[in-house]
Write a structure and sequence with these properties.
Low-confidence stretches: 27-35, 243-251
Strand order of the largest sheet: 1-2-5-7
Distance between the termini: 111 Å
Order of helices and strands: HEHEEEEHEEH
Mean pLDDT: 87
Number of strands: 7
Strand content: 5-15%
Shape: globular
Structural class: alpha+beta
Oligomer: single chain
Largest sheet: 4 strands, antiparallel
């Protein structure tokens, strides 16, 4: 006996509803997955920014207590400040996280990088002679480099930043907490490569995933210590009473 037309129509309608529901569930799952990944990425970025802010405050605190900024870490696996003076490329390396008592890595398991002007690693730091020589650049609307901090030549009259701290970001380059140098998976990411090997000039830009953009893709996160802020903190620290290990005020 042939099927009733109404029954066949109901069956087709039920199948269509099942298909629509299945497709809807698949789309929802993709949206949830995408949202979860985006949220996780944002959380990691905020956590890394917080670690950099904490490192900056710790560096200022160190300068207040010691009359100078610390030198970079002894190595990728030793977070103590390196012994002896640093100069040139030796003043660029890793944040001395053990000496400062802060986290030494970002949210992607890469060591935080640190570069400091040599004159600011020797106490006492004299505003009359110490030259801050770390520069921070970005790019203008046409892609040309421009200075955010400092200028081409840093000297006693045109000083730049005393120090910078940065994370290599999620993608490309950096050094793992195990001390292993990570490969560059980017193409044409000139500004990230500049940061990775820089000793005085560093880039800070908005995140960019387009490899064809000026400077290439970019996800480094960088902060710097402003010169006048450092001097204000150190001057305030010099006016505070000092105590010896027994709690007695020193002269």
């Amino acid at each position: 006996m042939p099927s009733h037309p109404i029954r066949r129509a109901r069956q087709r309608g039920a199948i269509l509803l099942i298909l629509v529901a299945t497709l809807g569930l698949g789309a929802s799952a993709l949206l949830i997955h995408s949202f979860s990944n985006g949220r996780a990425a944002a959380i990691r970025e905020r956590a890394t920014a917080a670690s950099l802010a904490a490192a900056k405050e710790a560096l200022l605190g160190y300068a207040i207590a010691n009359g100078r900024l610390p030198r970079p870490a002894a190595s990728a696996t030793d977070g103590h400040e390196m012994s002896g003076p640093c100069g040139g490329a030796g003043c660029s390396g890793y944040l001395p996280w053990v000496t400062l008592g802060v986290a030494g890595a970002d949210s992607w398991g890469k060591l935080l990088r640190y570069s400091v002007s040599p004159a600011f690693t020797r106490a006492p730091v004299s505003p009359a002679s110490a030259v801050a020589d770390r520069k921070v650049l970005s790019r203008d609307a046409g892609g040309a480099p421009l200075f955010l901090v400092g200028q081409q030549d840093c000297d006693i009259n045109s000083r730049c930043a005393p120090a910078v701290i940065f994370s290599s970001g999620k993608n490309n380059l950096g050094t793992s907490v195990q001390g292993l140098a990570l490969a560059n998976a980017g193409v044409g990411n000139a500004d990230e490569q500049q940061n990775d090997g820089a000793t005085s000039e560093f880039f800070l830009r908005k995140p960019e995933s387009n490899p064809a953009a000026p400077g290439g893709e970019f996800d480094d996160i960088l902060v710097w210590i402003p010169l006048q802020l450092l001097y204000r903190k150190m001057e305030a620290g010099a006016d505070r009473p000092k105590f010896d290990g027994a709690g007695a005020m020193s002269k």
